[in-house]
Amino acid sequence: TGAWTLNAGSSIVLRRADNTTHPNDIVMAGDATFYTGASTSAHHRQRTLSGVISGTGLLTAHTTNTNILHLNNTNTWSGGLLAGGVHSENKAETIEADVTNSLGTGPVTIDDGLTLRIDGANATTGTDSILAVSGRKSGRESYKLYMNAPDEVGQLLVDGYQQPNGTYGKVGSGADYEMPWIDGNSLLTVSSAPPDNTAPTVTFTDDVGGGSVYPGQPVTYTVTFSEPTTPALTAGDLENAAGTGMTIESVTADSVVSYTVVVKATDVGALNLGINASASMEDLFGNPLVVPVADNDTLPVIELPPIKGQLGRWQPWANGGINPATGQPWAV
Rounded to an integer, what distance in angstroms lies between the CA atom of residue 114 and that of residue 108? Predict the structure, then answer.
């Protein structure tokens, strides 16, 4: 019935097959872990911490199955909350912040596999608070953030990238930023994002090491931006800055900052992949990408040599550049 004092490295295991409420006050004297479910039996159980959580340690919530952890008091601990990612066993769990300031005063980090439900207005501490979310939940819901009550944070980081000030909500909510990973009928306000006046940059990395290529040879580029940009990169944004004919085979988004682009030169000359002057891309704070911009490496596009000793089309890049008949590089 007394307070729980958690020292650094300690843990509490809340693994029962029924719903449980824990009225004990909790003192986070150091970084500690809460285990909130039984791996084999406690599906969709409720764990409610209704006492006051105070102290300076980091609270790590290790979740499993579809269990829900309720924070149900006005809490003052400053060490922060960490959940999801390697601390989520089944990638289908939820933390519910039920009342004002229930998330304490430290940063809140919600990684892959877990949803944060804001059920109590102003569950965070407003302009001084930091909320970081990453990944996506893979269980019954696809949402990272469920806004059942309005809240305000100073800073919002999504997949490690700072988001601008404004309101955030589900698609169709009328928020400044409508996000597919948010649900619920209330909005999250971000009010103290640090200013960003730096324009995004971009790099191009080819898969031939800057060497020569031939007309019709597929060349794969990784196009990487320094930060998320909008709108997404498309084939219409690309050009061969060297002027030689080029076809764009595909543009695939690998992440919020990285794309795989496959191109072929159609003539002898040079290949220098770039983003053309008509492209209009900017970072989340409205800083535009300076265009045109192109790869630092220009690839020579040389004429195909005559075939010697091999029937069929001469493709010296085939089979990783190795003639399977000899085990040696292709020769002419």
Answer: 12
